[in-house]
Amino acid sequence: MKSDIRVCANWETAHDRPVYTLGDSCPDCDGPTANSAPAPFSPEDPYGEYRRRARRRRDSE
């Protein structure tokens, strides 16, 4: 399911805070927007263990 709420893709460099909109372009800077919904989570994710292991390895270095 796709979220209708979108966030300015350039908000970290162009704005002090995230700018949310329903359109395809930012109302403040006229830049592109991206889907603001997080990725879906599945407890049966077959690659989750490998991602967590890689993240732990990366964080310990």
From TrEMBL:
Example of a GO biological process term: rRNA processing
Pfam family of the protein (one): Nop10p
Source lineage: Archaea, Methanobacteriati, Methanobacteriota, Stenosarchaea group, Halobacteria
GO cellular component: ribonucleoprotein complex
Protein known as: Ribosome biogenesis protein Nop10
Top-rank lineage group of the source organism: Archaea
Spans annotated as Disordered: 29-61
Biased composition range(s): Basic residues: 52-61
Known function: Involved in ribosome biogenesis; more specifically in 18S rRNA pseudouridylation and in cleavage of pre-rRNA.
Similarity section: Belongs to the NOP10 family.
Keywords: Ribonucleoprotein, Ribosome biogenesis, rRNA processing
